[in-house]
Amino acid sequence: MNERIKELALQAWQRTNEQVSSQKSHMPDTVISQDDISDIFEEKFSQLIIEECIQLVVSSQHKNTIDKYDEYFNGFNKSLIFAQYRIQQHFGVNNESTI
User: Fold this and answer.
1) Which of 6, 7, 28, 53 is the most exposed place for a label (fewest CB within 10 A)?
2) Do the beta carbons of residue 45 and residue 37 sit within 8 Å?
3) 56-91: b (≥16 Cβ within 10 Å) or e
4) CA 99, CA 51: separation in Å to the nearest integer?
5) Do residues 50 and 56 lie in contact, with contact meaning Cβ atoms separated by under 8 Å?
6) What is the average pLDDT across 60-71?
7) pTM of the full predicted structure?
């Protein structure tokens, strides 16, 4: 498995544990099943992968352009911004959590 995927999985487990601990501290009598924990992990892991993809798109934008290529880079950057928007919309990711 890709090292970055392993890192994201570890981060997702950490976030899952934090959420489960928080739920247990706020509602000590609540029983959280293994299926519930798996669902939380899957959601956290998916969010992290999507955010990573969006960050890759955002970081691909050209910051410094040469005057004669401004129109090209502006179009390229607009395409990347649109790709970011479409990924967020498709997966229902909140804008504040990605940039």
Assistant:
1) 28
2) no
3) ebeeeeeeeeeeeeeeeeeeeeeebeeebeebbeee
4) 8
5) no
6) 69
7) 0.72
Sign, CA torsion 98/60/91/36: negative
**C-alpha closest to that of 49 among 96, 11, 89:** 11
Write out the DSSP string of the chain.
--HHHHHHHHHHHHHHHHHHHHHHHH-TT----HHHHHHHHHHHHHHHHHHHHHHHHHHTS-SS--GGGHHHHHHHHHHHHHHHHHHHHHHT--GGGT-
The pair of three-digit structure tokens given for residue 91, joined into one six-digit string: 């997966």
What are the tokens at 30?
């609540």
Angle between helices 34-59 and 70-91 (to 10 degrees): 170
Q: So where are the chain's domains?
A: 3-97
Sign of the Cα pseudo-torsion (5, 42, 51, 27, in order): negative
